[in-house]
């Protein structure tokens, strides 16, 4: 890390541009950012300055962005307006990982996963699953399931036996049986339609998710 | 080398101490050498249920802190030659002893007994850590109530994480008439949720309360249905295959006659 600074600050007519190095790790980046801002403390008072942060070939989660944002905001008159990354944003969301897990999620236990989760087993009352993608339970879902926890409203929750304490998709929370009841002992899935949680038979899922499938045979 | 079995539940008041006392006594009835250890420090009950309260001289904490030898603290049962109890301290609290100390005491007991039954306090905190520290196997007691089943599930999760292989389940205080009317959780439903082996079902029985007050474990009284249930549990622990008891009250001669006449 010696010599070459990880952060370069440039002035434009719209405000400042922070160019962050994309090779070093995030912690040292934050340290340097802090040091740089502390050093210039006196000069940096005055009218509101807009800041654009360029991340280079680095991708940051909302949490890390917030850390950078608050570090810069601490200067008082700096306001982070945008984060720019050279990497296309969409790629990551298109390919969530499917993780397969075997076991019973018992009361007091939580399974968290970034991506889709396939659980071969039950989720008992008091247990919970939190996923940024879809949740599939091959077993009885009796606890809490939160799909699309990072805000993905297209996420679904499917279970062989749907008897949850609570279902959450993105920001929407639903409580059976006050809001809906499971009609038949069939595999069902929960999804959001216009921001409202609905339940349907799993056999109807393909209608809402038009994926290209290739079947062999006639 | 004996086996240490911890009796636990998470929730309080489901019958851990009663189960420990009756399981221990039933194993002694079957000719095994048994030592029961009460780890509910500050709220000891096992001695009361066993009717041995007035024989206590030293307790678990005294042994842990080296004030007496283990053998001095053991209380011999008044009914059986080969049934002993290590009482908990009543004047201290659970932090007076560390899991490692309990483990050492249980390890010391195991070579001399066929079974060491450890009565666990309610909760999943320090007292629970103490109780499970030295155990080889676990028996989970629950009642057919949602709250008790939920806590049992939590405890099973913790035990599994600590490497206990397949804890066994006892469903206590079942009321057959409530089961029949559908007001009580079904045994099958409980087993489905908890997904561990059932080792016994015990019907709710007034004789249990009466026995506990008298300091006579119910299992001594063969007229009680709960006693039969506990004896069955003891036999299953020994590895016998015993069918689950029928919860329906057996109809007497008169009932059978009535049934017969109606059919005829």
Description:
The complex is a heterodimer of chains A (218) and B (264). The N and C termini of chain A lie far apart (62 Å). Chain A has 218 residues and is an alpha/beta fold. Chain A has a six-stranded mixed β-sheet, with no helix packed on it. Chain A has a five-stranded mixed β-sheet with strand order 6-8-10-12-13, with no helix packed on it. Chain A has a four-stranded mixed β-sheet with strand order 1-2-3-4, with helices on one face. The longest helix of chain A is centred in the first third of the chain and has 14 residues, at 26-39. The mean pLDDT of chain A is 83. Chain A has four helices and 15 strands. The radius of gyration of chain A is 23 Å and the shape is elongated. Chain A folds into two domains: 7-84, Transcription Regulator spoIIAA (2-Layer Sandwich); 96-208, Pectate Lyase C-like (3 Solenoid). By secondary structure, chain B is α/β, with parallel strands linked by helices. Chain B has one domain: P-loop containing nucleotide triphosphate hydrolases (Rossmann fold), CATH 3.40.50. Chain B is 42% helix and 16% strand. Chain B contains twelve helices and eight strands. An eight-stranded mixed β-sheet of chain B has the order 3-4-2-5-1-6-7-8, sandwiched between helices. The interface between A and B is medium-sized, with 12 and 13 residues.
Descriptive key words:
heterodimer; A: about 220 residues; alpha/beta; Transcription Regulator spoIIAA; Pectate Lyase C-like; B: about 260 residues; Rossmann fold; about 40% helix
Q: What is this structure, in a nutshell?
A:
The complex is a heterodimer of chains A (218) and B (264). Chain A has helices at residues 26-39, 62-73, 90-94, 205-208, and strands at 7-12, 15-20, 49-54, 78-84, 98-102, 110-113, 116-120, 128-131, 135-141, 144-147, 157-162, 166-169, 172-174, 188-193, 196-201. Chain A is 16% helix and 36% strand.
């Amino acid at each position: 890390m010696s010599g070459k600074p990880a952060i370069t600050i440039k002035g434009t007519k719209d405000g400042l541009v922070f160019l962050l190095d994309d090779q070093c790790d995030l912690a040292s980046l934050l340290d340097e950012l802090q040091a740089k801002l502390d050093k210039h403390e006196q000069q940096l008072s005055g009218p509101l300055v807009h800041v654009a942060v360029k991340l280079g070939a680095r991708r940051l989660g909302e949490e890390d962005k917030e850390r950078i944002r608050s570090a810069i905001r601490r200067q008082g008159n700096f306001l982070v307006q945008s984060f720019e990354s050279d990497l296309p944003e969409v790629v990551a969301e298109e390919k969530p990982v499917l993780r397969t897990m075997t076991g019973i999620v018992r009361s007091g236990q939580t399974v968290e996963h970034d991506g889709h989760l396939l659980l071969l087993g039950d989720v008992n009352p008091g247990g919970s699953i939190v996923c940024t993608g879809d949740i599939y339970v091959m077993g009885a879902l009796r606890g809490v399931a939160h799909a699309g926890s990072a805000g993905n409203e297209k996420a679904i929750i499917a279970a062989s036996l749907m008897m949850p304490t609570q279902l959450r998709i993105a920001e929407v929370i639903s409580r059976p049986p006050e809001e809906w009841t499971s009609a038949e002992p069939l595999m069902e899935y929960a999804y959001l339609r216009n921001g409202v949680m609905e339940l349907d038979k799993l056999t109807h899922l393909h209608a809402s998710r038009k994926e290209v499938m290739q079947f062999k045979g006639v | 080398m004996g086996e240490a079995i911890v009796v636990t539940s998470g929730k309080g008041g489901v019958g851990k101490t009663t189960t420990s006392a009756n399981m221990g006594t039933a194993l002694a009835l079957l000719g095994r050498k048994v030592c029961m250890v009460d780890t509910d420090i500050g709220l000891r009950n096992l001695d009361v249920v066993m009717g041995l309260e007035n024989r206590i001289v030293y307790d678990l904490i005294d042994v842990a802190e080296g004030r007496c030898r283990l053998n001095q603290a053991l209380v011999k049962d008044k009914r059986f030659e080969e049934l002993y109890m290590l009482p908990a301290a009543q004047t201290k609290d659970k932090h007076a002893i560390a899991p490692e100390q309990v483990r050492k005491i249980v390890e010391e007991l195991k070579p001399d007994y066929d079974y060491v039954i450890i009565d666990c306090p309610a909760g999943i905190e320090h007292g629970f850590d103490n109780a499970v520290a030295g155990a080889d196997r676990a028996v989970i007691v629950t009642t057919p109530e949602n709250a008790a089943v939920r806590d049992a599930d939590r405890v099973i999760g913790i035990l599994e994480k600590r490497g206990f292989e397949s804890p066994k389940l006892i469903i206590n205080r079942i009321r057959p008439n409530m089961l029949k009317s559908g007001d009580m959780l079904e045994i099958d439903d409980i087993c489905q949720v908890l997904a561990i082996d059932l080792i016994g079902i015990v019907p709710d029985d007034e004789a249990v309360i009466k026995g506990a007050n008298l300091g006579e474990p119910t299992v001594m009284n063969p007229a009680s249905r709960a006693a039969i249930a506990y004896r069955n549990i003891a036999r299953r622990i020994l590895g016998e295959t015993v069918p689950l008891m029928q919860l329906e009250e057996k109809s007497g001669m008169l009932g059978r006659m009535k049934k017969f006449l109606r059919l005829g």
